[in-house]
Design brief:
Number of strands: 6
Radius of gyration: 50 Å
Pfam families: FYVE, Rbsn
CATH superfamily of the largest domain: Zinc/RING finger domain, C3HC4 (zinc finger)
CATH class of the largest domain: Alpha Beta
Protein name: Rabenosyn-5
CATH topology of the largest domain: Herpes Virus-1
Keywords: Coiled coil, Metal-binding, Zinc, Zinc-finger
Domain C2H2-type: 13-41
Strand content: under 5%
Number of domains: 4
Structural class: mainly alpha
Domain FYVE-type: 149-227
Number of helices: 14
Length: 439
């Protein structure tokens, strides 16, 4: 530092003779040796000053470092003792929640607006997509105008130059220019599922070559926005363990209702002495209802045992589902009508058979009386009599019996009832023909 005038103070590596600023100690020494060599005393003093300063800087005493370190530790300890000894007073605070919410909402609104615009374009693209490649390209350009790439020399994403091998391509949603390596392809089936969540989803995955030919070429930004919307849709449509168990339980209940109705119908048929069903069929239906009851009981227990905080709405709902399932099993599935015994069934069928025989005898006597009252005259022998083995009614009855046997094996008792009714009609018709031929 030197004083050039009374009012001006200069700082730096200044020459004591000419007051020139040499920026460094080496430059100052060289300057003094070349221009002011006659001042050897001053030059010697300069070298001594620079040597001592260099020695102090490079060869710092360890004791000084230790004292400095101890002093710092002492000050730190004193500050900690001060803060621990006195209770700290809460100062002025400021909440930035509103600012963060404003920034977040603005950003979300911008992304939502951009995503909705892309989804509208995606819907127009996949709707009525032509199969022909030339027509498809024209359709894509009509929906989303493509940017003019005549002045674009580099790919905006990877900054590589376009040439004969690296051709220019366009994003089908925003129309921007990109190269093939920076392109991402979206499957058309996934695109249709995104714009229409109710449409059936295809689980087939296309290989990369097929996807490049049939998929939509997108830039990475548009693909990320569409993929984010797809993830949001999947998370909303994803079913929890409780929902899945409840839906399975409701499905078993829906299967149990017609099974119980069919069981009651089959029991009533046995009590009426009908031959449509037998005791084996009714026992099989009862076993099926028992399995459905076991499944409903197991699923309701799983729902009730799912972890939930006591007293919360979820816990009360789970307990209510369990109680409702237990009540349904007890009142509707386990309180079924008691089956009749084999002796009771045989007795009822014998009585029913006797009533049918009496009706047949009465019908036969009536037809005989009608034949006797007809005009006298010899009746020509009938040539239309067929052998019983060749009777088409018997063939039809045998076929229906085979169908009934198959339906019983597969527990399709509603179909058994319909086939048994048809068989009864054929039997009545066959008996009527027999009575007519005898008379």
């Amino acid at each position: 530092m030197a004083a050039a005038n009374d009012d001006e103070i200069l700082e730096g590596f200044l020459c004591p003779i000419c007051k020139a600023d040499l920026k460094s100690a080496s430059q100052l020494t060289s300057h003094f040796e070349s221009l002011h060599s006659e001042e050897q005393d001053v030059l010697k003093s300069l070298k001594d000053i620079f040597g001592k300063a260099k020695k102090i800087i490079l060869n710092n005493d360890d004791n000084d470092l230790k004292e400095t370190f101890d002093r710092a530790l002492k000050l730190n300890y004193q500050e900690q003792a001060y803060y621990h000894s006195q209770e700290q007073v809460v100062g002025v605070s400021r909440s930035s929640t509103d600012y963060f919410k404003a920034v977040r909402s603005a950003r979300l609104e911008r992304y939502a607006t951009e995503t909705n615009k892309l989804l509208i374009r995606l819907d127009k693209l996949v709707c009525n997509m032509p199969t022909d490649q030339n027509m498809r390209k024209q359709h894509e350009q009509e929906v989303v105008p493509w940017l003019d790439g005549s002045s674009v020399k580099l790919c905006p994403n990877c900054a590589k130059a376009f040439n004969i091998t690296r051709r220019k391509h366009h994003c089908r949603l925003c129309g921007s220019i990109l190269c093939h390596d920076c392109s991402v392809f979206l499957d058309l089936n996934i695109a249709r599922a995104i714009v229409d969540p109710s449409a059936p989803k295809s689980t087939e995955q296309q290989d990369p070559e097929t996807l490049e030919k049939t998929g939509l070429r997108l830039c990475e930004h548009c693909y990320n926005l569409v993929e984010l919307r797809k993830q949001v849709q999947d998370s909303r449509n994803a079913k929890t363990v409780l929902v899945t168990a409840y839906e399975q339980m409701r499905s078993l209940m829906e299967q149990a209702r017609p099974a119980v109705a069919m069981y009651e119908k089959m029991c009533q048929s046995l009590f009426d002495g009908e031959t449509t069903y037998n005791l084996t069929d009714v026992n099989a239906m009862r076993g099926r209802i028992g399995k459905l009851a076991e499944g409903i009981d197991l699923l309701s227990k799983q729902i009730a045992a799912h972890p939930a905080d006591p007293g919360t709405r979820q816990a009360r709902l789970q307990n209510a589902i369990r109680q409702a399932a237990a009540h349904y099993i007890k009142e509707d599935l386990l309180s079924l009508r008691k089956l009749p015994t084999e002796a009771q069934i045989e007795e009822v069928r014998r009585q029913r058979y006797e009533r049918a025989e009496r009706q047949i005898q009465a019908e036969r006597q009536r037809m005989e009386r009608e034949a006797a009252t007809q005009a006298a005259g010899p009746s020509a022998p009938s040539d239309n009599h067929q052998d019983d083995d060749d009777d088409p009614l018997l063939e039809q009855m045998n076929i229906i019996r085979g169908y009934i046997k198959e339906a019983r094996k597969e527990l399709r008792f509603e179909e058994v009832a319909i086939l048994e009714a048809n068989l009864k009609e054929l039997k009545k018709e066959y008996q009527f023909q027999k009575l007519s031929s005898k008379s």
